[in-house]
Amino acid sequence: MRKRPLAYDADVARRHIIKRDPVMRDIVRRVGGFQLEVRGEPYEALLRAILYQQLAGPAAAAIERRVLALFGGVPRPGELTLVSDEDLRTAGVSRQKAGYMRSLGEYFVNGTLVNRRLRRASDEAVITDVTQVKGIGRWTADMLLLFCLGRPDVLPVGDLGVQNSMRIAYGLESMPTVAQMEEIAEPWRPYRSAATWYLWRRGDLVTL
Description:
Endonuclease Iii, domain 2; mainly alpha; 2 strands; Endonuclease III, domain 1; two-stranded antiparallel ribbon
C-alpha cells in the first residue's frame, strides 16, 4: 500500500506529549523520534484487516498473496460481492472471512462506504460507518484511523499492547480499565495517536 505523509506535525505531537506527561517524556527519550507510517486507502486497508484477523503475520501474508493472485490484484468491491466461498477457500480464506469480505464489498458497492467520504469524516463517524461491516469491530476501526487515515487523536482502548504497556509504565496493579486509560491519556490530547505509538514501541524495547 502506498505510503502517505502524516496530516499533522510529528515533532509538534512529540513535544506536546513530552511537555504534558513526565512518564511519556521518559518513554519518548528512550524510543526516539515519532515515525508512525500512514498507508493506503480505506477500502484496501479494511480488506487487508479482514484477511489478517486472528492469523500470525506469515500465514496472513501468504493468504493475502493468494487472494491477490486470484483476482489479479486488489479485488474491486463488486468482485467481492460475486466471488464464491469455494474460490476463496482455494486461497485459504475461511467461510466466515469470505462473508466478511462480501459484506465489505456490498457496503462499498452500494455507496454506504466511500473512500473519499471516509477520509473527510470525523473519527466517530468513521467508527460508526465501518463497524456496520460484518467482521469489522472497534479495534479495526481504530487501526484504520491511525494507520490509514492518519488521525492525530486516536486512543485504541481495546488494544492489548497499549493496555499492557500502560500498565507497566504507570505502575498499575492490573490491566487498566477504559476509564483509567482515558484518564491517563487526557493530557495527551489532541495527539493521543503519537502517545499510542510510543506505548507500542515501549513494549518492543526490552531495555525499557
